[in-house]
UniProtKB/TrEMBL annotation:
InterPro entries documented for this protein: RMI1_N, RMI1_N_C_sf, RMI1_OB
GO cellular component, one term: nuclear body
Annotated family: Belongs to the RMI1 family.
Domain RMI1 N-terminal: residue ranges: 16-63
Protein name, UniProt field: RecQ-mediated genome instability protein 1
A Pfam family reported for this protein in Swiss-Prot or TrEMBL: RMI1_N_N
Length: 259
């Protein structure tokens, strides 16, 4: 028996009203959420909505049955946006993207290598102090490790240590590799600080919407708080591979410069 069409419509409405800018899922995707309840009563709509939202944001945008076809056609990168020969343009539509890579341009690659090696040893540095770090991940599952406070340390010092390790300081500038639902890729560059964009905060596979009117220069989208909405999410397999391979990639880049 197919899912109740009225319930499917209610679920779609609930998703789009409770999470502004969320990409519109396909009817096939919604059916997968409701299929287990064709022969038994479904949970409350709020529970179904939370389940659908989590599953949507943790999926690959390019999956053929994930998003509504009409939504895809109106929320992918316009062809001109990825052209490196176009000096200046603006997006003529909202574009839904997922994060494939993030790099902190405010820190040298060698400095980032040292930070990651310190994490592997279970410690971080603040000035000349060594701050021991717990092995477990934080409760949010972001892979950022907590700080074990020494008696003389303050919470501010712990926060500074975490910022040093993650590269998530207020003045940091990040470059992202972004991908739309058709698989087109484009660089994103922080023109002004976007709060949720930082290594240790932003996940690989996380979804965002870059709003109509955002500036594009030579195939790079300029990211600003007013034009960039970070929706959340994570593609677990991608994020795990990115974290595990990041140190090796940075070392390779450093060695390449030195040759």
């Amino acid at each position: 028996m197919p899912p109740n069409p009225n319930l499917q419509a209610q679920l779609l409405t609930s998703l789009l009203t409770t999470t502004p800018n969320l990409p519109t899922p396909s009817s096939t995707f919604l059916a997968t959420i409701l299929n287990p309840y064709t022969s038994r009563p479904p949970p409350p709509l709020a529970v179904l909505t939370a389940t659908a939202r989590t599953r949507l944001l943790s999926s690959d945008l390019t999956s053929p049955t994930l998003l509504d076809p009409t939504y895809i056609s109106t929320h992918i990168l316009p062809p001109s946006s990825t052209d490196p020969n176009i000096r200046s343009a603006v997006l003529d539509r909202d574009v839904c993207l997922q994060v494939l890579d993030i790099e902190n341009l405010s820190k040298s690659r060698w400095s980032q290598v040292e930070d990651l090696e310190a994490l592997e040893r279970g410690e971080g540095t603040r000035g000349r102090e060594i701050i021991r770090l717990r092995d477990e991940e934080d409760e949010n599952g972001n892979g950022e490790r907590g700080v074990t406070q020494l008696p003389s340390q303050t919470q501010t010092q712990g926060g500074a240590a975490r910022a040093t390790i993650s590269g998530g300081g207020e003045k940091a500038t990040h470059k992202l590799v972004l991908q739309d639902a058709k698989g087109q890729k484009i660089y994103g560059l922080e023109l002004r600080k976007v709060d949720k964009i930082a290594i240790g905060k932003l996940n690989i596979g996380e979804k965002m919407v870059v709003k109509k009117g955002a500036s594009v220069s030579r195939g790079v989208i300029m990211l600003e708080p007013e034009k960039c909405v970070v929706l959340g999410g994570k593609v677990e397999a991608w994020h795990k591979a990115w974290v595990e391979g990041r140190l090796a990639r940075l070392k390779e880049a450093v060695q390449g410069v030195g040759q």
